[in-house]
Amino acid sequence: SEYITAFGRTMRTVYLVLAFCLLQGVEGYSLHQETQLHANLTTKYDRKIRPYQNQTEPIQISMDFYMEKLKEFSEQENKISVVGSLSIEWKDFRLTWDPTDYDGDLNQTSLFVSDIWAPNLFLLNPYEKQTPILSDGTACTIQSNGYVTCLLADNFETTCSADISNYPFDTQICTLKFYVQGSFASNTLLQNASSTIRLDLYEIHGLWYLTGTRNYVQTYRIRGMSCEVLQLELKMKRRNSYCVYNILLPIFFLNLIQLFVFFLPLESGERVGFSMTVLLSVVVFFTIIQSKLPEFSKPSLSPLTFKLLVDFLTSIFIVLFVVVITFFYHKKNH
Fold it and tell me: Where is the signal peptide (predicted)?
């Protein structure tokens, strides 16, 4: 045991010596050095000019999206709300430096959008008004090789037309569209960093689950000029367990029950009351379905709407038929 104890003390001493040597070899940059770097980068810097030595060549902007959760999808309002982080990267040759001039350890720093050139990025299909994605208060990371990376976390609300033709077994496709205002493909090229939306931080939604995503650049022609738009596509399928067990199955059993009205004896006088009860039940379910669906018929109405309408008309016909039979039955007896 003494040998083990001595060995442990020796190893502890070795670790302490190694740690001390490593700490002695680490040189961190000071506040003065980073302040001097900011002054060197921003002095005579004009944020109105694109960061390209040859102004006839387009600047390349790489974009990526990290989706955190689907906050809301409203069929009635044609709105989708997505929480996530948008990563935007480009290269600015004016924001380069040699780390050896700053003790060799100052490889990156941060600057606000108000201090540098940044793309005037907008959401093309917002639910309300358009606002710049990158505000002046957004901080961006600058690498010593001139690469600028801005990571913006926000709640993105866009328009999305719902297709309820297969409700409640429907699949929805929504797209977030980003573009650089005042630029064309001749001076700005958008690039998707990945072919799909990144779902590393995604939280599962209770009503919808993602069946697929796409991240691609679409080119449009506007007055003879090419304009690029980054499109983030979400394909969602409804979780229909609630609708099946709370709407479809009760409707099926109501349709089955209303056929038993003719098995009730006329002498009991319960046929009219029973058929009216079934009719009111169908009306209640019809109201529930209509409250969940948007008030439009494009591309087509849900088959469930027609099914409930047929059930409603059938129930009315059964009520009228029962009333007529009961009337003639009592007239015959009298």
Answer: 1-28
Helical residues (DSSP H) of 30-177, grouped into ranges: 31-42
Q: What are phi and psi of 274, to 5 degrees?
A: -65, -45
Tell me the C-alpha distance between 238 and 100, whole Å.
56
Cα–Cα–Cα angle for 197, 202, 207, rounded to 5 degrees: 105
Please write the tens of the pLDDT for every residue from 196-216.
Answer: 999 999 999 999 999 999 999
Strand 139-143 and strand 208-222: pairing? unpaired
Question: For residue 68, what pLDDT band results from cuts at 50, 70 and 90?
Answer: very high
The CATH number of 31-238, from 2.40.10.270, 3.40.462.20, 2.60.120.460, 2.70.170.10, is 2.70.170.10
Q: Evaluate whether 78 touches 161 at the Cβ level (below 8 Å).
A: yes
- Give the number of residues written for the chain: 334
Q: Are 228 and 190 in contact (CB under 8 A)?
A: yes
